[in-house]
Specification:
globular; 10 helices; single chain
Length: about 270
């Protein structure tokens, strides 16, 4: 594995779209399962303070494990996902701890700054939600906000995907991997602007929509869209990192499912 980022060859959008569709077709149930888990985690698991950071790290780690499994052992994708995830869980836990502490400190600092700003301006710039918004189910209100935050933090922040990919590949070295991810985004500026900046702008626009246009069906559409985007652009992130650090510009060959041999009843 080459830890130095490089410029991606032209035609990446068409190439990754084709490869992502191929990976989905190899194990559609696994992909839908990851999307469903993404929606359930954000809808029903509380994430106070900066606990969304470690949850995001583990969710992206699970996504990458599933993509690696479908890429290299598609015939046994569910079992391979669990094996890959278990092998990297300790490094992911260390990264989650480090990222949580950093984001907790930054969150406290920014909260103090915003509270001072709000007190000085008497909350003049605050846009209050539609009163009907509070009539929506709690899981939907919290789920759409958390899903947008997880998508923003885990997928569309330019250096986050390479940092998690490298952590799962060579171990937890957060500062070095973060710098490497930042360099990768600089080297691939068109990719960073098109995908990551476009995704950040899209999330920042869509997340407040439900507060102003409260609707059950709209909330469900947003949750579904965020879940699909998590898998789709996460797959693009996996393909980007695989091509950049491993030099593999195509998916591995599809493998056949291997069944375990039947247990023998011969006691001799």
């Amino acid at each position: 594995m080459n830890l130095q980022p490089k410029t991606i060859d032209p035609g990446w959008a068409k190439r990754w779209t084709r490869q992502s569709v191929e990976l989905f077709r190899r194990a559609p149930g696994l992909a839908v399962g990851v999307m469903t888990l993404f929606a359930l985690v954000n809808a029903f698991i509380p994430q106070p303070l900066a606990l969304d950071v470690p949850i995001t790290v583990f969710m992206v780690g699970l996504l990458f494990s599933s993509l690696r499994a479908v890429d290299h052992d598609s015939g046994n994708s569910w079992t391979a996902t669990w094996i890959f995830f278990r092998q990297t869980s300790r490094d992911l836990a260390h990264l989650a701890r480090d990222a949580f502490l950093v984001m907790l400190v930054l969150g406290i600092v920014f909260a103090l700054l915003f509270s001072l700003y709000s007190a000085a301006t008497h909350s003049a710039g605050t846009i209050k939600p539609n009163p009907a918004y509070w009539q929506l189910p709690v899981w939907l209100r919290h789920g759409t906000a958390r899903a947008g935050n997880m998508l923003t933090l885990g997928v569309f922040m330019p250096s986050m995907l390479p940092m998690i990919f490298l952590t799962m590949s060579v171990g937890n070295q957060p500062l070095m991997h973060y710098v490497t991810g930042y360099k990768a985004a600089i080297l691939n500026m068109r990719l960073a602007y098109t995908v990551f900046m476009g995704g950040l702008l899209g999330c920042s626009f869509l997340m407040p929509v439900l507060r102003q246009i409260p609707s059950l069906w709209l909330g469900c559409v947003l949750m579904t869209g965020f879940a699909v985007s998590f898998w789709w652009f996460g797959a693009w992130g996996y393909l980007w990192c695989r091509e950049m650090f491993e030099g593999a510009s195509e998916n591995a060959r599809r493998t056949a499912k291997q069944s375990l041999p039947a247990p023998s009843h011969n006691l001799t």
